[in-house]
Write a structure and sequence with these properties.
Blueprint lengths: L1 H22 L19 H26 L5 H30 L4
Length: 107
């Protein structure tokens, strides 16, 4: 479970770095086709809202990695994976809502 935890921590660090950059206004890190219908005046708001979904992914990976450190039992692994998938689903919903609000749809 150590390797799993390290992988989750590295992934969390990457999502934290990307989310921070997007939150600070670097929306070029998001694909152009996800931003086609966003008004220029709303780009900063869009970046901050999108970054919240990225931060949620970061927290999910971090929490799943921390839970995995508690042992090698099947129950702990199951809880860690449940937290991972639940958090990714919630984060995905947040990002989809942001896309629909600012872009009018996913693409």
């Amino acid at each position: 479970m150590i390797i799993y935890s390290i992988t989750m921590f590295v992934g969390a660090a990457l999502f934290l770095a990307l989310g921070t950059a997007i939150y600070r206004g670097n929306t070029k890190l998001i694909h152009d086709y996800h931003q086609r219908n966003i008004k220029e005046s709303e780009r900063t708001e869009y970046g901050r809202a999108f970054a919240k979904g990225m931060f949620a992914i970061c927290a999910t990976l971090l929490l799943s990695g921390i839970i995995a450190l508690f042992g090698k039992d099947d129950q702990i692994a199951t809880v860690s994976l449940i937290v991972l998938f639940a958090g990714l689903i919630i984060s995905g919903v947040v990002i989809i809502k942001v896309q629909k609000k600012y872009n009018g749809g996913l693409f």
